[in-house]
Design brief:
The protein is mainly α. It contains 23 helices and 4 strands. It starts with a helix and ends in a 9-residue tail after the last helix.
């Protein structure tokens, strides 16, 4: 019997038949892959990942190797993988506006995006995404034609409705387009479940214009929209918040729309109040800092960052958060201390402990880190750099992490402490969260640059 199976394996290899059951990914350049897809009249399926992305690794381990997945993807697509932080992957991810990982792009042989999805998907859902992409490929009017017609000036209501639905299907942002469409729609059309499902379907690239016409309507009718879509309370408000933030980053900051900053702040305040969120004032101060950091306005960035930290983050109930973390951590540990649970059976126990012991303080730490990093990147003012150095140190005390140490190292260097900076970057590289992956190698390279007196290209 053993000889029989060995013979089958040898025959398969000799005949060139693939022995893989899961998705077979192409090697070669992006242009090579596009050329192959065009020649075979297929879409390119692109798995956009990063080395540190947990859901990416989960897909590789659990879904990509499945036979039923391989049968569909190998037949229908030319499959390709890119690391969004390396080589050609950097430009490809930027070209298609990839903001989260994993992202799945379905692109035709001309390099035109046909469909997009992402995240960890169980096999059934992942195959459904493939089916949608195949359907989009055979749509007689691909997105490129809709784009051309829109650029040519078509603003007919039915066309705009179709255009919104098409862009929603391929996960393309619709914020400004919805502002054009909204005044043309009747109350009946605005309440249509199909339309609402297209508008309020989660996607990390979705955009909504702060204070816009659609925003105002959604705020007023968010409960009715949730009911129509059969979603939990707060679904619509949550998506508005996410889409507004995305618009803030990709339009308001990118195009230096200073007049939209107060609109963004007032809209954000309204949403936070409706959702019962806390720490509103510090969040709004953070938006101001983000705007001036993103628009590279050094003169206004420094006071905005100082205001964010001193009158925002450090005005929070830090002592209360630390006490709450301590109490929650002690409660979590009880079954392990009394012997009813076994810590040796818990994967990544040490790293998990670090996270669970600082659950409330992690957020404060990361926000302080962001303020320190904004100063690092945005100014060479010695007084501001000295303040930011203290922020980074405090951030790492609140939650020890490779990213806070890396920012601390960068600021040490800009404050003239080269050896201490190199030592701190080396320490950052030893964080258990990143042992053996590309992020650790990056930090080690940063430490080597600092020893030469060079500023790292990216801190972490």
């Amino acid at each position: 019997m053993r000889t029989f199976f060995l013979s089958i394996a040898i025959l398969s290899l000799a005949s060139g038949l693939p022995t893989e059951q899961g998705i077979v990914f192409e090697q070669g350049s992006w242009q090579d892959v596009l050329a192959k897809a065009k020649k075979e009249d297929k879409l390119v399926f692109v798995d956009v990942y990063t080395s540190w992305c947990g859901p990416c690794k989960k897909m590789v381990a659990e879904v990509f190797p499945l036979k039923e997945v391989g049968d569909v993807f190998n037949a229908a697509f030319v499959n390709y993988k890119i690391d969004a932080e390396k080589g050609e992957g950097i430009q490809i991810a930027k070209q298609f506006g990839v903001k989260s990982y994993p992202t799945y792009l379905f692109v035709n042989g001309d390099g035109v995006l046909v469909y997009r999805s992402g995240g960890y998907n169980e096999a059934k859902l992942f195959l459904n995404e493939a089916a949608i992409a195949i359907k989009e490929k055979h749509d007689p009017k691909p997105l490129a034609e809709w784009d051309d017609e829109y650029r040519a000036g078509n603003r007919d209501k039915d066309f705009l409705l179709g255009y919104v639905r098409k862009r929603a299907a391929v996960k393309a942002p619709n914020g400004p387009l919805l502002e054009e469409l909204f005044p043309l729609l009747s109350d009946h059309e605005l309440a249509d479940k199909g339309f609402l499902a297209a508008v309020f379907d989660f996607d990390p690239n979705m955009t909504f214009v702060p204070g816009g016409k659609l925003y105002g309507y959604a705020v007023e009718h968010h409960k009715a929209i949730d009911q129509t879509l059969e979603k939990r309370d707060g679904h619509t408000l949550g998506l508005l918040d996410m889409g507004m933030r995305q618009y803030f980053m990709t339009d308001i900051i990118k195009n230096s729309k200073a007049s939209m900053l107060p609109v963004m702040r007032s809209s954000k305040r309204q949403l936070m109040e409706l959702m019962g969120q806390e720490e509103i004032e510090s969040t709004l101060k953070g938006l101001v800092m983000d705007y001036y950091a993103g628009t590279k306005n050094e003169e206004k960035l420094v006071p905005a960052a100082i205001d964010y930290v001193n009158n925002g983050l450090l005005k929070l109930d830090i002592a209360g958060k630390i006490a709450a973390d301590k109490a929650a951590y002690q409660k979590m540990r009880e079954p392990y201390l009394n012997g009813t649970s076994d810590s040796t059976a818990v994967e990544n126990w040490t790293s998990m402990q670090r996270i669970l012991s600082r659950q409330k303080m992690i957020d404060v730490s990361y926000k302080l880190r962001s303020a320190a990093q904004a100063i690092y990147a945005g100014t060479d003012d010695k007084e501001a750099l000295s303040l930011a150095l203290d922020w980074a140190k405090t951030a790492d005390e609140y939650f020890p992490h490779f990213s806070t140490k890396a920012v601390y190292a960068g600021l040490l260097l800009k404050n003239g402490q080269q050896q201490a900076a190199a030592d701190m970057m080396q320490l950052a590289s030893e964080d258990g969260f990143i042992q053996g992956d590309d992020k650790q190698r990056m930090l080690l390279e940063n430490a080597a640059r600092i020893r030469k007196g060079e500023l790292p290209k990216a801190l972490w």
